[in-house]
Amino acid sequence: MTVTTRAENVGIRAIDVYFPSRYVDQTELEQHDGVSAGKYTIGLGQSKMAFCDDREDISSACMTAVQNFMEKYNVSYSDIGRLEVGTETIIDKSKSTKTVLMKLFEESGNFNVEGIDTTNACYGGTSALFNACQWVDSSAWDGRLALVVAGDIAVYSKGAARPSGGMGIACILVGPNAPLALEFPLRGTFMEHIYDFYKPDMSSEFPTVDGPLSVTSYVRAVDHAYAAYLEKLEKIEGIANPSLSDLDYVVFHSPYTKQVVKGFARLAYNDFMRSPESAQFADVQQFKDVGREESYTNKVLEKAFINVSKGMFAQKTEPTLLAARNIGNMYTGSVFFGLASLLSQASFDQLDGKRIALFSYGSGCAASVYSFRVRADTSAIAQTIDLSTRLDSRSKVSPAEFEAIMDLREKTHNALEYEPTGSVDTLFPGTFYLQKVDSMWRRAYGRTPLN
């Protein structure tokens, strides 16, 4: 019997992201929707929103992400021992997206691949990542690598929520000796039962959303997960009274980037509550006696801590928002697009040896704060992702055409014996697309040429 040596520095060895070739400009969408200027661009903090028509579904998008990743990084399918998908975009209540991805493994002859779909709103990708890292870190590990696929097609019905949509898939290679080593067991988790965002209607892609409750739930989750993480830092790392100063970068799940600004300010508020006499909080002493529950809806307090934390936010979190601002919400993939943005925006000299903390939130709710330590050069990953260039290569679509495409998706959701009408010519090279749905709901896919 072969004994596998215990893995060290388990974490993310490589990452790539997929997003559609078309977007709608949020300023133009404001004008089209007849809302006040800045409602989407300033109020939500969004610039552009990616979307797809009836040619792409969650399976095709995940196939695109995985195949492109394997080709870019020259990874063999035979080297993968675990594949787990985190998504809430469901086109089948039984058959997992992971099983569709096994089509890509056929040529390699590798069918011995553990893992399955993991689902809970925007948190499923984080849970899939934990599972993959813990597999490599365990006695069950067989020496091969793991793939984590996380992402969604985020669409909303017409109205105030639609501009907070988006679409994107992250593909992550997990293994030992990783440039981004997961800091076991530095993790704080918070979970509770709440109806803030959920999808009970199987006949629709659209969620049921309680907007104000969702914002409050996000902030509450920040409080509890961050406190649990700091407790681990104190006990395991021996750091006395840990705070934001012990985190070099902080990546957030981003439903829209203005929420990330508020989330970061909440970290500062928590530091204030732990050490109210600290000099950095001299200007917010009036909030010392505000109750925590009251603080969740106190807009004056919120604005004060946004101002107090502005400098730290610019340094620790602003570099993580490139994708979120220009693509929109990717649900389970969102926090990993933030990580990809950071790797693209910060040089290895800036990242070397640094701690990158992530806050992952999924409605319902599930949340965790966890961290990676940069252990090796990230330059090749940044070059491979090539995020800014790829974002700039997309095509802009008018709000009227975007609206027509959203109507098409709504009308054809769960269609039977259906052939999509969207043009394949608009897709990026190497994109998988839906060819047809037959009389038994079986889906057939093709791929656009690479050149």
From TrEMBL:
Q: Where is the Hydroxymethylglutaryl-coenzyme A synthase C-terminal domain?
A: 182-447
Occurrences of domain Hydroxymethylglutaryl-coenzyme A synthase N-terminal (ranges): 7-179
EC number(s) given by UniProt: 2.3.3.10
For this chain, one GO molecular function annotation is: hydroxymethylglutaryl-CoA synthase activity
Catalytic center at which residues? 88 (proton donor/acceptor), 122 (acyl-thioester intermediate), 253 (proton donor/acceptor)
- Which keywords does UniProt give here? Acyltransferase, Transferase
Tell whether Acyltransferase is among the UniProt keywords.
yes
Q: Where does CoA bind?
A: 214, 258, 262
Q: Which InterPro entries match?
A: HMG_CoA_synt_AS, HMG_CoA_synt_C_dom, HMG_CoA_synth_N, HMG_CoA_synthase_euk, Thiolase-like
* Purpose: Catalyzes the condensation of acetyl-CoA with acetoacetyl-CoA to form HMG-CoA.
Query: Would you identify the family this protein belongs to, as annotated?
Result: Belongs to the thiolase-like superfamily. HMG-CoA synthase family.
Q: What is this protein called?
A: Hydroxymethylglutaryl-CoA synthase
Its lineage reads:
Eukaryota, Fungi, Fungi incertae sedis, Zoopagomycota, Kickxellomycotina
What gene codes for this chain? ERG13
